[in-house]
Design a protein that fits this description.
By secondary structure, the chain is of the alpha/beta class. The chain has 2 domains: 52-179, Rossmann fold, CATH 3.40.50.720; 183-446, Dihydrodipicolinate Reductase, domain 2, CATH 3.30.360.10. It contains 17 helices and 15 strands. α3 runs parallel beside α4, α7 packs antiparallel against α16 (411-418) and α14 (371-383) crosses α15. The longest helix has 14 residues, at 159-172. It binds nicotinamide-adenine-dinucleotide (NAD).
């Protein structure tokens, strides 16, 4: 691998001797833990806010959904919106007029107009809902201007970026939460509750995935998710979108709160489907035909934790296959599997070799429904957003800010869950060699309590 490619993939600042080590086949890239520039934000609480005043950057497919939830949530005022694509900004403004609300100050005259929005002193929280490669610079700019940040997934695309988020949160003592909505699905909350009740025994292994056929996004050439996401498949080869499957499993296993990701190994299949799709659907002179797709169609990454547990994280955004996040957790007493939901608990369900599923799961939901879902599940069903989990996530995060509580997902989770992507890229490029996952908590994972069953 060329030196500049190595730097791009890892995002790490490496010295010549360290690079020589890598070239010699050392297992581990030399990711140094940077000197902390502030104090830990593990369990950070900030003063209660009566009303959370929000500035939203990015009102595309995802941001428009967030906006509609923000306009419905109690205790939230959207003070400013920003999108650099004129028609999208106008559509965002229309969401206000449709509800007979005044249109807030709007930004987007160029790529950097969001900074003018950040200069406002009537914003507490900035939501970053833009393409992956822009998350960190926007989040860092926002924290440096005294704002809390909720950022979309993945929070960062390089190791260096992940550290930047952590260090800026610590320096500014601001919240920086990645909006991993899948942690708030009804199923995932139920399973978290069952894990905490010890129903699966000691947790040994988990599986998460993002398997979602997104080929048709390639038709978005000038604007929309496919216009920028497709470029990633032409430059990177690894697990590009790990957090939806991994986040819930990380919470079951109390990652960064008693355990942590130690190292990973990763392999990708050949890259075929994007090229096939481009040939079938685009003329010869199209950028889609001219591009070379280098990202293997299926990536499989295995993470080893400090306590010795294993997590398989898969990624596939292009093959013909039904949607799945796997959502599997295996313990000494039983297993939960998702897609479709099913469970085995020794001594409770039929036999160890037979899944209980379908209607058989009703007793589990009756007994172990997570209190948070009991509290807001009904309104979540009405408000929607991926089966209601988007609403539960925002409801809960805003509730925490209004009540001066720590957030369920810390900046350390944002960094550790997101950094699986660049580390998988490194491992794929090195025949699946293992690579250490940085300890973004700088040791605090040993003393931080597991996430409780919040109400
Ligand atoms: N959690 C989920 O379930 C989920 C679902 C979909 C997307 N996402 C994430 O949400 C993010 C956005 O995805 P999307 O599908 O909405 O993409 P999108 O392309 O539809 O929207 C992104 C928006 O950001 C705007 N933007 C880009 N640069 C900007 C800048 N400098 N200033 C202001 N606005 C700018 C674009 O004009 C666009 O409208 C991504 O990180 C994606 O991974 C998460």
């Amino acid at each position: 691998m060329k030196r500049r490619d190595f730097l791009r993939l890892t995002g790490a600042t490496v010295g010549a001797s360290a690079l020589a080590g890598t070239a010699l086949g050392d297992q581990t890239p030399p990711f140094r833990t940077p000197r902390a520039s502030g104090k830990s934000v593990m369990g950070l609480v900030t003063p209660k806010m009566d009303v959370v005043r929000v500035g939203l950057i990015g009102i595309g497919e995802r941001g428009s959904g967030h906006l509609s939830h923000l306009l419905a949530l109690e205790g939230v005022e959207v003070r400013a919106i920003c999108d650099s694509h004129g028609p999208t900004l106008q559509a965002g403004q229309k969401q206000f007029t449709d509800k007979h609300l005044p249109v807030p100050p709007s930004y987007g005259k160029d790529e950097y107009d969001y900074r003018n929005m950040l200069d406002r002193d009537d914003i507490d929280l900035v939501m970053v809902v833009t393409p992956w490669e822009k998350h960190v610079s926007m989040a860092v700019d926002a924290m440096n201007r005294g704002k809390h940040v909720f950022t979309e997934v993945p929070a960062a695309v390089t190791v260096e970026e992940a550290w930047k988020l952590v260090d800026t949160a610590e320096k500014t003592q601001r919240h920086c939460m990645m909006m991993e909505n899948c942690c708030y699905g009804r199923e995932e909350l139920l399973v978290l509750n069952m894990c905490r009740l010890g129903l699966f025994g000691e947790l040994l292994h988990g599986e998460g995935a993002y398997i979602h056929d997104l080929r048709t996004q390639m038709f978005q050439l000038d604007h929309g998710c496919g216009s920028w996401r497709t470029a990633h498949y032409t430059k990177r080869n690894g697990n590009l979108y790990p957090t939806h499957g991994l986040g819930p499993v990380a919470q079951y296993m109390s990652i960064n709160r008693g355990d942590r990701f130690d190292y990973l190994t990763s392999m990708s299949s050949p890259a075929r489907m994007r090229d096939i799709f481009a040939k079938e659907h685009f003329p010869e002179d199209s950028i889609r035909r001219k591009s070379k797709y280098v990202c293997g169609d299926i990536n499989t990454t295995i993470v080893k934790t400090a306590l010795g547990r294993t997590i398989m994280v898969q990624w596939d955004e292009q093959l013909a296959r039904p949607y799945s996040r796997l959502n599997l957790i295996q313990g000494t007493k039983g297993v939960w599997g998702g897609y479709p939901q099913r469970v085995v608990i020794e001594g409770t369900t039929k036999t160890a070799e037979e899944w209980t599923e379908g209607e058989g799961l009703e007793t589990f939901y009756d007994k172990y429904e997570h209190p948070l879902w009991k509290r807001v599940g009904d309104e979540a069903k009405v408000q929607g957003g991926h089966g209601g989990m988007d609403w539960v996530m925002l409801w809960r995060a805003i509730y925490c800010l209004r009540n001066g509580l720590p957030l369920d997902q810390s900046v350390y989770d944002a960094a550790a869950w997101s950094v699986i992507s660049p580390l998988s890229e490194w491992s794929v490029a090195h025949r699946g060699q293992s690579v250490d996952v940085p300890d973004f908590t700088r040791g605090k994972w040993k003393t931080t309590e597991p996430l409780g069953i919040v109400t």
